[in-house]
Amino acid sequence: MTFALIFAGGTGRRMSTRSKPKQFLEIHGKPVIIYTLEHFEYHEMVDAVTVVCIEEWIEELWGLLKRYGITKVRQIVPGGGTGHDSIYLGLEAMKEFTGQQDIILIHDGVRPLINEELITLNIETVKKYGNAITCEPVRESSIRSEDGEVILEVPPRSQMYTAKAPQSFYYGDIVRLYEKAHEDGIRSIDSSHLCSMYQEPMHMVLSTKNNMKITEPADYYICRALYDARESQQIFGI
What we know:
Layout: E1 2-8, E2 26-27, E3 30-31, H1 32-41, E4 48-53, H2 58-68, E5 73-78, H3 83-93, E6 103-108, H4 116-129, E7 131-137, E8 161-170, H5 171-184, H6 191-197, E9 204-206, H7 217-236
Parallel strand pairs: 1-4, 1-6, 4-5, 7-9
Antiparallel strand pairs: 2-3, 6-8, 7-8
Helix pairs in contact: 3-5
């Protein structure tokens, strides 16, 4: 079986929003988290979804799922203090119904601009190679510095990519890494970073365009503009 773990436990401090967490902000009257969940709801290869959410907003999310006809969400669990903690809590909560060889796609609740093809590619790549890390080629030169002042290296741009999401694995493999990190007191930026820390081999899949994460106010307005552009393409054929 194939499951999705959507982590939406962040409070969005960089968004400067006091009324709503960023995942509940609306684009054309629909919350960002619903746009994200719809990709997995409508994908025929995804069997069920677990969402990690801010505890105070769980009841609100259940109401939104009913309102928008999202039926695949099996559980909503409270998030942790970091994205790493939220993923760990979500993986642990899934133990009661997830097998070691089930596939799990880990995705940001505030990354709504993906599509069916990317989800399919992630699933097929896990079956072939054991995992799938969605990546995007960098468009500008990357700089490596240890202190933020002295440049140590400018790696060839052709070799540099940005890790995106989904990041997909066999459940048994990824839960083992998060449990080990929990025992070792380690926190990662994302699942690909955790794999790198434990020197686990990873396989890359190329992302769709504009697979952005809404982190700051500018991201929200860019995302909304991209949805406007998509609507224009459908209506006017441009």
